[in-house]
Amino acid sequence: MLDYLVLYESETGNTKKIATEIFTALPGTSKDLINMHERDIFPEASIYFIGFCVHHGTCSIDLGHFLGTLSQKAIALFGTCGAGSVPEYYKSIENSAQIWIEDDNQYLGGFFCQGRMPPQIRQKYETMLRESRPEEERLIQWQLQNFDEAMIHPDKNDCRQAREFVDICLSRI
Question: Which of 97, 104, 119, 146 is 20 to 30 A removed from 81 (C-alpha atoms)?
Answer without folding.
Answer: 104
